[in-house]
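The passage that follows is intended for readers who have already worked through the single-chain material. We present the inputs for a multi-component assembly, then the predicted structure in tokenized form, and finally a short commentary. You are encouraged to pause after the input and sketch how you expect the pieces to fit together before reading on.
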Amino acid sequence: MKVFISREICAPGIELLRSHGIELNIWKEKRELTPLELIENCKNVDALLSAGANKLDAKFMKKCAHLKVISLHSVGFDNVDISEANHLKIPIGHIARILSEPTSDIAFLLMLAVSRKAFSGYERILNGNWNFFEPTRYLGIEIKGKTLGIFGMGNIGFEMARKCKAAYGMEIIYTSRSQKENAEKELNARRVSFDELIRQSDVLSLHSTLNPETRGKFNKTVFNQMKPNSIFINTSRGAIHNEKDLIEALQNKTIFGAGLDVTNPEPMNKNNPLLSMSSVAVLPHMGSATVETRNEMSVIAAENIIAAFEGKRIPYPVNPEVYG
Ligand code: DGY
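Having made your guess, compare it with the prediction:
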């Protein structure tokens, strides 16, 4: 059996695949594959392990209908045409469960970095501009006792809420497709309407999937209803916010600041105005980037492939419906 791996991943997953006698073809160039290159590389293999945001659309699926499994090296699957995969009966695996710790850490880190203008202070040192103490410079805002709004109370949202409650006694409100009893019991979280969420949050943190309903949802209309001292955090998908509207909201001081681990588009252009704003912190989509998590992600991605090759149901399917 052969697998094409679209980017270098951590060693444990690679070793696991090899220990099962699976032959690997790993794309080593540090650039995106073109859609055609991806199809070409998948022609003579039995599975794709897709790391990065390769577009696995209907055209790709049709050309690669022979694949026994597509294993994503991500929890998100917004880059995949799931209905076409279902139609062709290709199981799609993803990384369930394990991203809540590292990604919520990054959301928490961004919240603090924005509230205390940390990235801007660091940049000042880098530029050789730390000259003397100015009592009115770098004035941030405090988080203690404020209200945290979670948009999408899944595992990552829950973990962010838990940390904020434990560290700062924050009051938690949330919107989610369903009621989350564990969050309500453990964190005293309150499920509210979307309007209440955006009007009442001091920190608004996005943890939902990207789908037709959430694409571009955080736009000018939403920013205009947020509190003037509020902080907007996005560690889920950049396309959930309208970046032009976000820039405008920050320039007009409609909101206090923004912390982004995901941008729209990615990678962010180095001339983006967000990068020169003092109450903005941007990271290059690194929410899951810890040794522990990336090692485990590589193993889970490998396990999905091995199970499919053994004719079994894959352990972490996005589309269990392919099994009937
Ligand atoms: C994920 O796993 O979805 C992360 O955002 C990395 O893409």
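Commentary: The longest helix spans residues 291-309. The mean pLDDT is 97. How closely did your sketch match?
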